[in-house]
Prior knowledge:
The chain is mainly β. It has 2 helices and 15 strands.
Amino acid sequence: MKHIVAILFLGLALSIQGRPNNEPYIIGGVPVEPREFPEMVSIQIDGMPRCGGTILSEGWIMTIAHCMVYDMHDYAVVAGSDNLDKDQGTRHSVNKIIIHQNYSKEDSWRNDIALVSVTPPIKLGSINQAGKLADPSEGINEGDMATVIGYGSNKYEGLPTNVLEKANIAVSNHDQCNTIYNSNFGLNVHDTQLCAGMEGRGFCGFDTGSPLFIKGKVIGISSWTYKCAEPGFPEVFTYVSKYIDWINDNLKP
């Protein structure tokens, strides 16, 4: 049995067996260009980055379910910042959280997706923009290049840098990814999840919920992984295209 280090939501580190890490940050990345990713937001507690998210509209963002397990009044959402230390952006309170009704941490973080309503509304324009979600008809193939972003640490078990970074990674073979996690940890990679990675590049802590892009469209949400860009272990994302109907149904007035 491999020994896994899981970085918990509030930044506490515990050594446990059999469960991979599901608190990503960017490994092997570089700082983004100014407002290169205007869809990105930081979800915070007590001024500390905890997760990332994607703007869907003035009033809604998308993130992962396992981030939004506390009282909504504990959270703040920061939009419009590439560097949380230098540019505070705009701060927004949370007034509603919708977690997927079939989310299951016990079943390999299945349906790890949530919608979050914010107030005041996020002003859209050149600074903040709604993310373009990939259509279900737009398939992905092994080897397709993708871009993952996040504000977090650039080393395993490190602290967040507060600087938005990006890293290019490749879509992995789904069946092989499932075999790796099933044989090592008894976990399943479901058809509503996708795998991507590249040795020395990827996510690992404090920024789950950040978007994964292919050709400028959001195809995934950082969900869970083993360690950080670990050789032989692709990273697992919620496959956003599988949830378009669920998203649209829950955003109806």
